[in-house]
Amino acid sequence: MKAKELRDLTYDELIKKETDLAAELFNLRFRLATGQLDNPMTINAVRKDMARVKTVIRQMDMEKAQ
Question: Which residues are CB-neighbours of 20 under 8 A, at least 6 positions away?
């Protein structure tokens, strides 16, 4: 997901997206540990998406503080 697309979402939608990505990351790590994960690179993609979401949330927080 692109950061530009994330900036179009509301604050609440971003928080929900962050929790969804955290749950997905947990499931991917669990599948990796049990040997059921086909493509381990998906973990990196989810981590990067989560970082993008957190960055946009932080930017929104900084804008509110000003």
Answer: none
